[in-house]
Design brief:
It is built from four helices and no strands. The chain is an all-alpha fold. InterPro entries: Histone-fold, TFIID_TAF13.
Length: 128
Amino acid sequence: MNNSSAGPSSKARVGASQPSESSLKRKRGMFQKDLQHMMYGFGDDSNPLPETVSLVEDIVVDDVTDMVHKAQDIASKRGKLLTEDFLFLIRKDLPKLNQCTELLSMNEELKQARKAFEVDKEKLASHQ
């Protein structure tokens, strides 16, 4: 996700819409359990070194933060951050774009299924 040709890093930019780094104190270790499972899924040890997990967490948080700042820059003209802003940022990375669109469509299918299930549940309750 870090692309040196994509422009200056979000850390280098200081503007009115960007909070200072001192105000961005994040809770360290918040994603460590999830990252441990993901790392294991990608072939790491089932119990990776804490230093490795912390490093991966720092990298992921930095990359996601950078992407959100870039998406906010795109959305600032419209005033509203949309999913399409993120898709626009990854449009040239076809595997990532395809995976995201697949996940978004699966999410929509799950929403529809939950909605249908709630309607069925309401009909059952009203008939009893």
